[in-house]
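In the previous chapter we treated chains in isolation. Here, by contrast, the input contains four separate entities that must be folded as one system, with a combined length of 388 residues.
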Amino acid sequence: MAGPTNAERGREVRARLIAAAQELIAEIGWNAVSTRLLAERAGIRSGLVHYHFESLQALLRQAAVEGMRPLLEGAAAGLDAAPDPPGAVEALLVEVDRYTGADPASLLVIEAYLAATRDPDLRDRMRELMDDFRAHLSAMLARAGRTDPEEAATLIMAAIDGLLLHKSLDARLSAARLAPLLRHLTRPSNGAAQ
Amino acid sequence: MAGPTNAERGREVRARLIAAAQELIAEIGWNAVSTRLLAERAGIRSGLVHYHFESLQALLRQAAVEGMRPLLEGAAAGLDAAPDPPGAVEALLVEVDRYTGADPASLLVIEAYLAATRDPDLRDRMRELMDDFRAHLSAMLARAGRTDPEEAATLIMAAIDGLLLHKSLDARLSAARLAPLLRHLTRPSNGAAQ
DNA sequence: CACCTTCTTGGTCGATCGTCCAATACGATT
DNA sequence: AATCGTATTGGACGATCGACCAAGAAGGTG
């Protein structure tokens, strides 16, 4: 019947606060998340927030990064799991269509992009996450024979995030329908004609 | 020495409030814009805000729509001014590189996307703006011989907004560098191989 | 047991918020 | 000059905010 230790309870509270922050950022927006709403959602008293985190912004920053990292790592793993580069891009786009642009994960990412323009710390962490994924995708495209893997990877990533943005306005849009148009990016480039 | 009439002063105040809202949304974020900050930026007393506008949200909504409409109409005019479809897309991408993703216009648009997910009125107005531009771009691509003009237009627009998002993290990214990869969208589609 | 560290409570502080309103100012109209 | 409608002022209302802190509770260790 040994209850949780002090350290375990502390970790639990921090995890609940991070989860509550990820939910609330998506629901009401980064700037609307307050310590008291966070505490209520996490089931703790509001005074605890500033015990476990240096500031509200530090909490939101950590919540955003920890929420985005598994998304990008999962997407990178999905690329490796595909049989070939065209299948990898196809699978990536199908995966994108599991998001509506207005779901918690999508909104967390977009909110984080905006917060990053006003928070140099967050911007550096997000740039690192995006650079890692771009390098991963770019390496795959280079192995497929492209001479411009960086540009192709940039286009695919921009198309994905932009489509999520547009899907939040119009749910009829679909990433999978763009697959035929992006498929040629996974084939060896053949000069200016391509 | 005839001074401005009452009606002229009213229009002037409304215009200053709209301009102040567009600036502040970009600077500090949609949810952080307050009536008192707006009044200070517009050079008026804070009580006036609720005389000219029904609510703060109504003011922000109108400011966002009025800020985005000229951007999209200008881009549509740019498409028509180009000599041919490939040139139009090329010019569009070059125009995008005039924005950094962290400039006032870009931030206003991205903030509006997020606000639209929580404001049905704003979402409908933005969807109409985007639909109009997509139809314009799609018609041009159809004239260029594509059998999938809607998908091609969706891809181009998603790539543009997504790249702006990514440029806010990494200023080295460039829309113009993606032009060679998008150029083939302006040529007649030739079946599954393309 | 006493002692230490970590965690939690409950509350205060000054500041800011959106909205509303009575009183006033001012151009236009009669 | 008297009147009307619009524009503006200055302040009020209750609510919420981020941050902070003294006091106490709880588990670990001597």
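Residues 3-7, 9, 34-36, 47, 49-50, 55-56 of chain A lie near DNA strand D (CB under 10 Å from a C1'). Chain A touches chain B through 47 residues (CB under 8 Å). Compare these points with the single-chain example from earlier in the chapter.
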